[in-house]
């Protein structure tokens, strides 16, 4: 039985989007020297929200120069106890402005307000609080008595968790005494620009954080700038490879957080209702725009039919639509380009012989939408079993023994995350030992905490973000 819900849209009156934004360099918003402009839109309505700069090479150079100066004159020499105060202040302002930031994130990205409000924003604040706590304790972090910062960090982030990825990058960098130049994704620049205002509000010394908007070219100019000491990138494996090539042979330190094709493995003794919730959360959270999404469901053959029936029943109840509505489970796809990629790979899934099922939900007329979709009868050779779709599409494979589950789960060029659903603790440990994945969740999925490190094996990248391990990427150790 389905329930009708009255619309419950979150008010947008709390956000004040300016018609255009400059670049945040040396503590102030500036006009571009040699850039272009790009428009950012609301993917749920296709309405233009604002115009931002696509920073050119001279803009990038000005930002790197400001970061260098701030590193040499204030931030790199400031005692950790003082840096911590700024980070705590930023964390508290984020909490105070969290509703505004959540609404803005939802408008610019398309994700449901329930997620931006209850997941993204609390984690963003938690990240700044967590690394504020490390700033004056670096001597005890296990990297020697006086670990030194690296200098200027160039940080490039994707559109799927715009503010959360910013927090993952900026909080540890600043805690360790580095200064940063960050480029948000072309389609989701707005919360990063409000974060720039928050840096002003916190009286952060000019140049410690610089935010330059733009597309891929701006990112390329930034990571290739000769005065950058450290590059931190999250995004596609393809761009990650280009960056690794460009950084090879330079003194720049590099961390890469790339794609994934995680296995979510359900054994016949798993609590099925819980597993169904975990599978739904694993692949439909954030429309599946999640690098660690559980996009391959490996189900033990004996419970395949029972699980799929329960799963489809649950998926049919997901509510797709206005991301600002507090009842919405599935929001908009972030861009026309991403929607096209999801459509193309789904069509290939059908052509290669997998069976496609989509939830029977109506799609809004405007904006970018894709219904929650499940492919059954998928084999390991299918492209939908090998390639990252980065959308609300689940590929279902089966296995008979734990050995076969491990072999299939590891049969991927990626290795970011995995999930195991079973009653047996011994089996969880046995599996976790053998899965080549940075994070292994047991009887849960997509759980994040600033104190626990996150990162990949193989083509999912290298380096760890979060926790004590995340400090290492920003210290000369
Ligand atoms: P992407 O091109 O790798 O974008 C990531 C970031 O890098 C963005 O800020 C992007 O700018 C920038 N960038 C692009 N080309 C660059 C270059 N040559 N040098 C430096 N920076 C550059 O990823 P995407 O196009 O947004 O998404 C493509 C696929 O990547 C997705 O379908 C998904 O499979 C994967 N992905 C993975 C993650 C993850 O969390 N691991 C996140 C997003 C996407 P623009 O945004 O302006 O292009
Ligand atoms: Mg946008």
Topology:
Blueprint: E1 23-25, E2 28-30, E3 36-42, E4 47-54, H1 57-75, H2 80-96, H3 98-109, H4 113-134, E5 148-149, E6 152-156, H5 162-175, E7 179-183, H6 190-201, E8 209-211, H7 216-224, E9 230-234, H8 237-247, E10 253-257, E11 263-266, H9 272-284, E12 296-300, H10 304-316, H11 336-351, E13 355-358, E14 373-376, H12 383-386, E15 393-399, H13 402-410, E16 417-421, H14 425-434, E17 439-442, E18 461-462, H15 469-472, E19 475-476
Helix pairs in contact: 2-4, 3-4, 4-5, 9-10
The chain binds NADP nicotinamide-adenine-dinucleotide phosphate and magnesium ion (MG).
Percent of residues in β-strands = 15-25%
Tell me the number of strands: 19
Identify the bound ligands.
NADP nicotinamide-adenine-dinucleotide phosphate, magnesium ion
Label the structural class: alpha/beta
- Output the CATH class name of the largest domain: Alpha Beta
Count of individual domains: 2
* Approximate shape: globular
Biggest β-sheet: strands ordered side by side in the sheet: 13-14-15-12-11-16-17
Our measurement of the CA-to-CA distance between the termini, rounded to an integer number of angstroms, reads: 59 Å
Contiguous low-pLDDT stretches (5 residues minimum) are none
Mean pLDDT: 97
CATH superfamily of the largest domain: Aldehyde Dehydrogenase, Chain A, domain 1
Give the count of helical stretches. 15
Second-tier CATH architecture of the largest domain: 3-Layer(aba) Sandwich
Helix content: 25-40%
Q: Might you state the CATH topology name of the largest domain?
A: Aldehyde Dehydrogenase, Chain A, domain 1
